[in-house]
Amino acid sequence: MRKRLSADEQQRVNAAAAEAERRSSAEFALVMVPVSDRYWPYPLVSAAVLALIVTGAVALLRPDFGIGMGFAIDALVFIGLSLVLDWLPLRLLLVPRRVKHGRAQHMAHRAFAARILARARGRNGILFFVSEGERYVELIADRDIHEREAQAA
């Protein structure tokens, strides 16, 4: 995943937002997040299912192993897979796209409420939301701007 904006990039974004605010009555805000949620259950559930499958395969291939050995194999595979699958790029591959986009959309709307509705003069503003991990971008405008501009704009 990409690093945060450099100081020069951040300055250019702020200058563009200030110029747009100067030419209109709307407030503009940019929110960039690396990921919209932790998605902690996905690596754990995936590791548990895969550990059970591996233990079942070992039990079929080596019936002479006792139940204690089966539990040990299950625990080691679960712990190992939990650690590996917790790496963010792999974790994001486990999460369905619909879930990732839903979480990112929820975070975008919360950011809009906090950054635009709560602070803007006359509650007039636009939020540009980017969630890098989910590859999700949303542009949210308040009701007045929606009434003045077509949806395609």
Cα distance spanning the termini: 30 Å
What is the overall pLDDT average?
88
- Give a short account of the largest sheet: 3 strands, mixed
Any idea of the CATH topology of the largest domain? Diaminopimelate Epimerase, Chain A, domain 1
* Strand residue content: 5-15%
Helix run count: 6
Could you say which overall geometry the principal axes of the C-alpha atoms support?
elongated
Indicate how many domains the architecture comprises.
2
* The CATH class of the largest domain: Alpha Beta
Would you count the extended β strands for me?
A: 3
Low-confidence stretches: none
Secondary-structure element sequence? HEHHHHEEH
- CATH architecture of the largest domain, by name, is Roll
Q: Over the alpha carbons, how many angstroms does the gyration radius reach?
A: 23 Å
Specify the helix fraction band.
55-70%
* Lateral strand order in the biggest sheet: 1-2-3
Structural class: alpha+beta
Description:
This protein has 153 residues and is of the alpha+beta class. The chain has two domains: 7-37 and 96-148, Diaminopimelate Epimerase, Chain A, domain 1 (Roll); 41-94, no CATH class. Helix content is 59%, strand content 13%. It contains six helices and three strands. The chain has helices at residues 7-23, 41-61, 67-85, 88-94, 97-117, 143-148, and strands spanning 27-33, 125-131, 136-141. Strands 1-2-3 form a three-stranded mixed beta sheet, with helices on both faces. The chain starts with 6 loop residues before the first helix and ends in a 5-residue tail after the last helix.
